[in-house]
Specification:
- The chain is mostly helical.
- The chain has 2 domains: 40 residues, no CATH class; 97 residues, Cytochrome c-like domain (Cytochrome Bc1 Complex, Chain D, domain 2), CATH 1.10.760.10.
- The chain is built from 7 helices and no strands.
- Helix 3 crosses helix 7.
Length: 137
């Protein structure tokens, strides 16, 4: 409960500081979970990718900022993600899923996702693993 309150306060401070610094953020749409998703990103393509990542359930195991929870793979340090170019490694893995290993929980198949959804997942993973100072908002 404390963590949820802390996240909400930090998200509100980020939104407030954006307005004080003169940055404009897109308006929150009804039902947008500011405490979980954080303030909406100025780039609508990246924001869509982030929301797809959350809706498909990736954030539950891998964390919205790619900080894994439990036995999920650490996408920030994954050699597969590091070697990926335009989804050439990530998309086949998403479609096939990953069986349980000694160190990792299983990952389900996402073979029914559209090309756009798969591209969104790849886009968010690559965006989120970059250092914060190099991300464009």
């Amino acid at each position: 409960m404390r963590r949820g309150i802390l996240i909400a306060v930090v998200a509100e401070l980020m939104v407030s500081s954006a307005f004080v610094s003169g940055q404009s953020l897109p308006p929150l749409r009804p039902g947008y979970d500011l405490a979980y998703l954080g303030p909406p990103l100025a780039d609508p393509v990246i924001q869509q990718a982030k929301e797809t990542y959350v809706v498909m359930g990736c954030a539950y195991c891998h964390g919205i900022d790619l900080t894994p929870r439990g036995e999920a793979a650490d996408l920030r340090r994954s050699p597969i993600v590091a070697a990926d170019v335009n989804g050439n490694r990530i998309i086949p893995l998403l479609k096939a899923g990953v069986p349980k290993t000694l160190k990792l929980s299983p990952m389900p198949q996402y073979s029914d996702l559209s090309d756009r959804q798969l591209s969104d997942l790849v886009r968010w993973i690559h965006y989120a693993r970059r250092p914060a100072e190099s991300r464009r908002q």
